[in-house]
Amino acid sequence: MARALDFDVAVFDLDGTLYMTELSVTPAIKQTFAELGLPLPPDRDIDELIGKPTTFYSAFLRARGGDLAREVERRVPARELELVRAQGALFPHARETLEELRRSGCRTALLTNAGPDYLGVIMGTFHLGPLFDEISSFRSGEVSKTARLRETVRRLDGEGAAVMVGDRRFDFDAAREAGVPSVGVRHGYGHEELALADVVIDDLWELVGMRRATLAARGR
């Protein structure tokens, strides 16, 4: 198990951390491009998009869509939402980890670069609303998660006792800039970017072990 961290607030990324994004975004892009007769983007290029702000996703679709850019931009997000509902899934132990952390008195938040429509479908499909005290999505013009992370930690009274859980450099950079320890998950899409995390875990349930160690050290 990874080394323990002392925390009362856990802030989670969504795509690649809690949600298995490749089950919806990859087929949505490939199916749409195939239907329109466009060259299929490599999986690695699609994976590179996951976790980036929505503006990067839109720019990718426009650039790859060529003369059909507008149609690609219209079809892909709609198809992706259909696929979230039809075949989307959370990573193993995602729900159980959130539930157990909250039972232990830990406050939880969701901090994502996803847009509100996509986020709303994820939240509704998997009934995640009751599992978070704060939910924060991408803001137009935003270049990093840092400001939102600071705000979230402050609102949840977690200064000095919070962690940021994610899989990409956007999560780890925001954590470092906000003065919050970061936890990287191996099952995500960051790969070599995990070197930027303070702690790396193989399974989300390891966070429960860290939380229990925190409470035991406090004699609770």
Write up what this structure looks like:
Strand 2, helix 6 and strand 3 form a beta-alpha-beta unit. The chain is elongated and about 65 Å long. The protein is an alpha/beta fold and 220 residues long. The protein folds into 2 domains: 140 residues, HAD superfamily/HAD-like (Rossmann fold); 67 residues. The chain contains 9 helices and 6 strands; from the N terminus they run βαααααβαβαβαββα. 46% of the residues lie in helices and 11% in strands.
The proportion of strand residues reads 5-15%
Main beta sheet strand tally, sense and closure: 6 strands, parallel
Oligomer: single chain
For the terminal residues, how far apart are their CA atoms?
22 Å
Q: How many E-type strands?
A: 6
Global geometry: elongated
Quick take:
With 220 residues, this protein is an alpha/beta fold. It has helices at residues 25-35, 43-49, 54-65, 69-87, 94-103, 116-126, 146-155, 169-178, 206-217, and strands at residues 9-12, 107-111, 134-136, 162-166, 182-185, 199-201. The longest helix is centred in the middle third of the chain and has 19 residues, at 69-87.
